[in-house]
């Protein structure tokens, strides 16, 4: 069927575009302002050069890696994405199920449509991480941290690149609100996708499972969620109250990486929010080696932004990441076919990763190094 015919993440993207209302697809696919950063993330991967080593036996390669003392199946982690039930009625639970089956960590967003306790009950055996937006409502912050802890989440990701909301022009032009509101335009858009609408009518309305129900434009939600006052003091507070692993997501400067590690973070996620916040930043792949150099080998360094293939994951690992993270890659699969679509996305990424590793002349993820991959000059 359709999913089996998808050979690449780009194929899933096209399939997702055909099955989802335009405003929803654009919300996933789009980015801020001129979308320069989003394009740069992808271009940086296309510019990498693989230099294979010959005559190495590569039978039965070991794709696994160890992150925070736990083995993961291959160096991939699911990035947090908000409002996931809008993309497909199966939402976060479907994605987390696939991650757990595949032996990969899943990150739940603060603005997810499932909360930490619900996710743990539905997917008891997964390695779940929780992404935190700190708001200026202290009580809410305490509550979110407590729930993640009570639900046995291993790792907390503090997102720091959302002082204010980025401006995603497609969402503004499409009149996207969350939850979706009915206007002539949105009704016409949704009416073209009866399967999507059917599920919207038969499942509970989309609200923020972790917060309270809050109908408004995505910019209104952001205004409530994001705190322009976020500071190092907040990170110090979080380090005191959160006993598990702590990652700071949204780092693009080596000096920032060093500073958050000094304050007790267990690592960083090199991220520009997939180009959805500040436009014109560097690509994440470009700053990755400097960030790794700045913190040394001890702390975890992950990267997201523009990862669309197993080859991209391999390039990220070679240039200094413990693992790559993906947002849109799995959301395209989710839009195209719910849980099975996400499964297909993971299959594609894993088989591409394995093939590239073997063709590079390596039989284990731990042997990947900067010797085999470089960034093209200029
Ligand atoms: C995101 N991202 C995100 N990040 C975060 O910290 N909290 C969130 O709630 C969300 N929500 C969200 C929704 C959607 C639809 C997308 C596409 C992204 C950013 C995400 O975690 C990650 O940084 C990027 O998606 C990585 O880029 P790629 O893989 O999408 O290119």
Explain what this protein looks like in three dimensions.
The strands form four sheets. An eight-stranded parallel β-sheet has the order 4-13-12-11-10-7-6-5. Helix 15 (284-295) links the parallel strand 11 and strand 12 (300-304). Helix 6 runs parallel beside helix 17 (328-359) and helix 14 packs across helix 15. The chain is an alpha/beta fold. The longest helix is centred in the C-terminal third of the chain and has 32 residues, at 328-359. It is built from 17 helices and 14 strands. Helices cover 46% and strands 14% of the residues. It has helices at 2-5, 9-19, 22-29, 36-46, 84-87, 91-102, 116-122, 138-150, 169-174, 184-191, 194-202, 218-225, 232-241, 254-262, 284-295, 310-318, 328-359; strands spanning 48-50, 65-67, 70-72, 76-78, 106-108, 128-132, 155-159, 177-178, 216-217, 245-251, 267-270, 300-304, 323-326, 373-375. The termini are far apart.
Quick description:
This protein has 378 residues and is α/β, with parallel strands linked by helices.
- Uncertain parts: none
Small-molecule binders: ligand FNR
Averaged pLDDT: 93
- The helix-and-strand class reads alpha/beta
Q: Helical stretch count? A: 17
What is the overall shape?
globular
Fraction in beta strands = 5-15%
> How can the largest sheet be summarized?
8 strands, parallel
How do the strands of the widest beta sheet line up side by side? 4-13-12-11-10-7-6-5
Per DSSP E runs of 2 or more residues, the count of β-strands stands at: 14
Assign a percent range to the helix content: 40-55%
Rg from C-alpha positions? 20 Å
Report, as a whole number of angstroms, the end-to-end distance: 42 Å
Keywords: Flavoprotein, FMN, Oxidoreductase
Cofactor: FMN
GO molecular function: FMN binding; oxidoreductase activity, acting on CH-OH group of donors
Protein name: L-lactate dehydrogenase (Cytochrome)
